[in-house]
Design brief:
The chain is of the alpha/beta class and 538 residues long. It contains 17 helices and 23 strands. β9 and β10 form a beta hairpin.
Amino acid sequence: MSSTRRIPADVVIAGGGIAGIVTALQLLRGGLRVALIDRDTPERLGGLAPWAFGGMALVDTPLQRRKKIADSPARALADWMRFGELDPADRWSVDWARAYIERSRAEVHDWLIGHGLRFMPAVNLVERGRNGEGNSVPRYHVLWGTGRELTRVLIAAMRAAGADRLTLLHRHRVTTLDHDAGTVGGVVAMDEATGAEIRVTAPVVVLATGGINGSHAEAVANWPRDRARPATMLNGAHPSADGRMHRFVADRLGGRIVNPGAMWNYAAGLPHPFPHFPGHGLSIIPCKSALWLDHRGDRIGPEPLVTGFDTNWLCRRVAEQKKPWTWHLLNLRIAAREFAISGAEHNPRIRDRQLVPFLRETLLGNHRLIRQMLRECPQVLADDTLQGLAAQMNALTLSHDIDPERLRATVDRFDANFAPGRDPAEDVQVRRILEAREWGPDRLRTCKPAPLQKRGAGPFIAMQLQLITRKSLGGLRTDLQSRARGDGDAPIPGLYCVGEAAGFGGGNANGNRSLEGTFLPGCIMTAKAAARSILAGG
C-alpha cells in the first residue's frame, strides 16, 4: 500500500482560474510558499479565463474620461444596486459591491496596465436595462488580447515570482479540507490520473474552485422554483465548477451558501462544433437586428427579444418557450456586421492583437466567421429563400414545426414597419436598435434598421439557439478580506474564498443580475483582498 505524499506550504489554493492565479501571484510576491492545485491540464491553467472575451466593467477610467463619459462611483453604485436588486440588508454582498465600484479602477485597471496589458480604445454600453435601469453610461472595457493574453501575462508573473516557492499540481482534485475544531489545516487531494492521494499541510486554505454551473445537476437543483427551466441546456462553464467545496464548507465547517439560484446564463448558445467536454456550448452575442423566433417560427413577444439590454430577462423569456430551442432569423447583411461569438476562441483578431485585420472586419463585415460557422456548425443554416430555409430548419429538428408560409408571414409583418407612411420605431425592436446606434461603438456593430427581405441582403440565415449556463452569481459568504464566514457570521479560521466560489465577493455581490463585465475584475479584487489579509496575518 502506497503512502500518502505530503507537501508543506504556507498557503494552499484550490483552483487554477484567474482568482487562484492572482492570489498565488500576490502571496508569492509577499514571500510565502504556495501550493496551487488545479483539476485541469497544464496547458489549460487559467480555468475559463483563456477562453474569455476579457470584458470588464470599470468605473471612471482614463478611457471613459477621454470619451467624455461622465461616470462616478456614486452613479455606478446606484446602477449596480438598482439593476442587481441587491438586498440592502445583505451586508457583505453590498459592501463588496461598493468596494468593487470604489476600487476597481486602481485595483484592476491600473494594476493590469502596470503588468503591460492594454484595453481597446472603445468603451461599450451593455446591460442598459429595458427601461434604462441598468448601466446608465458605457463601462464595458475590453482587453486587447482577450482573456488569453490576461492569463498568459499573469501566469508568467506568477511563475517568475514563485521561483522555488511555488508548487503546481495539475490534474488533482481536492477531496476534503483538513480541519480540527473548526480550524483549517490544509487539504487532501487526489491525482485524477493515478488515484494517488496527496496531503498539503498549510495553516491557510484559499478556495478558488469556481461556482456550480459546470454541473448540470447542480444548476438544475438550484434553479429558482418560480422560473421556467428548459428541458435541455448547453454548458458554458468549466465542468470542474461543481459546487462540491461549497457543500463541504457548509456541511462540515458551518459556512453559508448565499443565493445559489442566482446565475448568469445566456439565452443564445450553440453546441461547440469541437467540444472540450460533454454538452459544451458557445455563447453567441445575439444580433440585435435578427428576429428572435419560437420553435414554430413566430416572433417571440409581445415584447420582442433584443440583446444588450437585460440578459437575465432574455434567459427567462427563452426558458418559458414550449421547446428548449429558439431561432434567430437574419440575413447576410445583418450577420456580417452583428454576428459574434463571445470569448477568445472565435475572436482571433482581438485575441492575437491583429489591429489592421480587426479594423477591416469591423468596417467591412466579419464574413470569415459566418463562413466558418456555416461550415462547422449544423445549427447555422443559410438559404436564398425562406421556403428553402424552413425546409432546412425542419430537417434539423426532425419536425414539421416550421410552416414556410407562416415563416414568410412573420417576416412580412416585420418588414411592413418600413412601408411608406409607417414609422419603423413603432416596433419595439427597431426602437431599441435605434437607441443602441446612438452610441458610436454600437453604431459600428449594429445595422441601420431595414426590411429583412431587403434586396441584395441575402441569403437568409437561421440559427437554432439554446440557453447556455455560464456563471454562478451566488457563492460562499465572505467578508471584505475574503475570509469565509460561518456560524454567527464569524470568520472560519484559516479559510478564504475568492472569485466565483465567493459569488465574486461577499457571497452575492452582483445580486440577481449583473451590469456585465464584473466577473474577471471580481476574481482579481477578491484574490488581492485575500492575499493582503493573509500576508497581514489574517
